[in-house]
Amino acid sequence: MSESKSSGKCTTLALTVLSLWGVASLITIVVWATAPDFKSATQCRKELRDLTVQHEGSKVVYQKKQDELEERVSQAHEEKEQLRGQILMLNERLNVTNHTLEQSRMEKLVLMTNISALQETVDTLEQIQANLSTQLVLKEDHIEALHLNLTQAEHQTESCFSLKDAAEAQTKAAESQTKACQSSQDYLQKKLQKCKVSESEGQTTPQKSSGPTGSGSTGSGPGHRASGILVLALLLLPTVHLILI
């Protein structure tokens, strides 16, 4: 058992040594492959001069670029100042435009208010026009009714004038008939007076000749009746004429 243990240790040790040798060999190969070539001092000085020349050239190029950049920066500052002035001018114009816009907005509000007021006025005038149209129609109907009444009144007036003319004609005819009746009445009164006178004379004559007898009273009876009929006719004649008129 001790021999097997010792052989196992030797094997392990051998494997470890082999592993270390392999790693060392790998490092050596890598270092050899990556190491730069060894150069001489002359070549190094030459490369140094070349690098110095390149550095001077780079400094000149850098200086030119820096000058160009400074010039560009100066131009940029000038342009910036110009732009700032333009921005100030644009701000002033913008303020003026905003003020004008505000005035326009206020004017628009005023105009809208005026338009609303005018629309209300138009609506009111349209309502007034409608009312006036209705009143005009009513007035026209009233005028037509008045015209009809006037026409009827004219016809009635003409009828009244005609009736007046007829009444005047009838009045004149009645006056003429009244005058005729008056003449007849005067004539009858005169005739009645004559009859009364002749009757009184007739009564006086028989009394003187024959005295109071029965024949005298009988002779005066018809005379009294005739005079009474004549007086009655005289009184009724104007009444009959008035009834006929």
If you had to describe this structure to a student in words, what would you say it looks like?
It is a single chain. The protein is mostly helical and 245 residues long. The protein has a domain at 177-195 and 225-245. It is 96% helix and 0% strand. It is built from three helices and no strands. It has helices at residues 2-34, 41-210, 214-244. Residues 208-222 have low confidence and may be disordered.
| Proportion of helical residues | over 70%
Segments where pLDDT lies below 50 for 5+ residues? 208-222
Mean pLDDT: 77
Order of helices and strands: HHH
Radius of gyration: 83 Å
Structural class: mainly alpha
Q: Cα distance, first to last residue?
A: 197 Å
Task: State the helix count.
Answer: 3
Could you describe the largest sheet, including whether it forms a barrel? none
Quick one: overall form?
Answer: rod-shaped
